[in-house]
Amino acid sequence: MKEKKTISPLRRILVNCTAQANEYGACVAAKVPEVERDMCLKEFLALKTCMQNTLRGKV
Amino acid sequence: MRRFLFSQTSCSLLRRQRRPKDIPHRWFISSTSFSTAEYEDGDAFQNSPSKVKIFDRHLKRTQRQRDRAAWLLRPNDSFVHAVAENLVDRLEDCKKTFPTALCLGGSLQAVRQMLRGRGAIQKFIMMDTSYDMLKLCKSSQRDSDNENIETSYVVGDEEFLAIKESSVDLVISCLGLHWTNDLPGAMIQCKLALKPDGLFLAAILGGETLKELRIACTVAQMEREGGISPRVSPLAQVRDAGNLLTRAGFALPGVDVDEYVVRYNSALDLIEHLRAMGETNALLQRTNILKRETALATAAIYDSMFAAEDGTIPATFQVIYMTGWREHPSQQKSKRRGSATISFKDIQKQFGNGS
Fold first, then answer.
1. Is the distance from CB of B75 to CB of B107 less than 8 angstroms?
2. Would you call B292 an interface residue with chain A, using a CB distance cutoff of 8 Å?
3. Which chain A residues are Cβ-neighbours of B266 within 8 angstroms?
4. Does the beta-carbon distance from A22 to B304 stay under 8 Å?
5. Residue A29 lies in a domain
6. What is the model's pTM?
7. Nearest Cα residue in chain A from B222
């Protein structure tokens, strides 16, 4: 059993990048029935940079 | 063989080789080999036995699935307990007692905890494909209050039931059968294991389960990768449950559905809960790769599409409860055609027309 609860990287990312995640989510949710590849690329790139910053910052 | 968190992979290899000798046949010897190929029951359209493989049963059993769930299992998982309670409650509706009971995979511990003497069970056989899960049940047996029940533990596969024919009064399966490749076959074997006038109780997850997760995964994958791969397993529909019971040959079938909406703080909590229950993906068709971006996208989309005002996300679990009895002359049957003694006209005269 794990004594210390290690926070998984994904969880840390979601906690740090809530704003970008919300924007990305809102972008996709608005266009839901017609989903195409990379249709919310801008928002996702913002989320991705935040994710990389989080991982680099902590690691 | 002591098993710890870090020596996972080597132990699973060992166990794979030892498996045929692993099954302790202490109480029951299988009289015939219950391969589903023999039970087509005159199905004229199928010449070959259905050996559809949808789930990777081996993966289900190993570290990443049931065994992991055995260590992660929360003793007070409210969802699993609610389902087990609901299922075991049905025993109270029967006047009959069930001295011998077989519990097939799924949430064994929850069933035993919720049992509390219902159905007057004296001998309890717990069966699971995962050795670790059984060890956990065995170790927690001392804490439970069911001391007068004789419990035995069998490591076995639901699709190859190693139980002697007509030997148990009751078969319970709580959230275990939706991972079988051949559900009708498994149910037929359960029926054969039952004594005449024996009861089969099962709770399986239905088609509506995790529909939010399914939608979020699909949308995220379409947006990020341009294609989709199955992430949620195919689950039985309610309308098929009745057919399954009659096909297996159960008399007096009964099906009812319950929908539980469980709230989580985030999509990651949902996935952790699924891991703890041993319900993570085991489709043969699955892609092993889940890119971090796609996972992130899924979590973000799940939040935005389905979040409630307080920030929690719902997840639907549709549970289908099935009950069936093995045939016995004492059960009521539908009357023969032409044996009616009163016509509807007489009834109408009695009760007045038009209402």
1. no
2. yes
3. 11, 14
4. yes
5. yes
6. 0.76
7. A37
Establish if B71 touches chain A: CB-CB under 8 angstroms: yes
Q: How many domains does chain A have?
A: 1
Q: How far is CA B148 from CA B99, B116, B124, B214, B329, in A?
A: 12, 11, 10, 44, 32
Query: Could you report the per-residue pLDDT of B292-340, keeping only the tens digit for each?
Result: 888 888 888 888 888 888 888 899 999 999 999 988 888 877 778 888 8
A13 lies in a domain?
Answer: yes
Structure tokens at B70: 């055995």
Q: Which residues in chain A have Cβ-Cβ distances shorter than 8 Å to B276?
A: none
- CB contacts, 8 Å: B67 with chain A: none
Domains of chain B from N-terminus onward: 57-328 (3.40.50.150)
CB-CB contact of B143 with B212 (8 Å): no
A4 part of a folded domain: no
Please tell me if residue A1 touches chain B, with a CB cutoff of 8 Å.
yes
Range of the domain at A14: 9-56
CB B191 within 8 A of CB B250: yes
In a domain? residue A25: yes
**Is residue A10 less than 8 Å (CB to CB) from chain B?**
yes
pLDDT per position as a tens digit, A8-33: 888 888 888 888 888 888 888 888 88
Q: Nearest residue of A to residue B68 by CA position?
A: A1
Are A24 and B268 within 8 A, CB to CB?
no
pLDDT more than 70, % of chain A: 88
Residue B60 makes CB contacts below 8 A (sequence gap 6+) with B66, B129, B179, B278, B282
d(CA B90, CA B99): 16
Q: Is B74 helix (H, G, I), strand (E, B) or coil?
A: coil
- Chains A & B: contacts with CB separation below 8 Å: 74
The answer to whether B159 and B34 have CB atoms below 8 angstroms apart is no
Sign of CA dihedral B183, B127, B203, B208: negative
Which chain A residue's Cα is nearest to B301?
A25
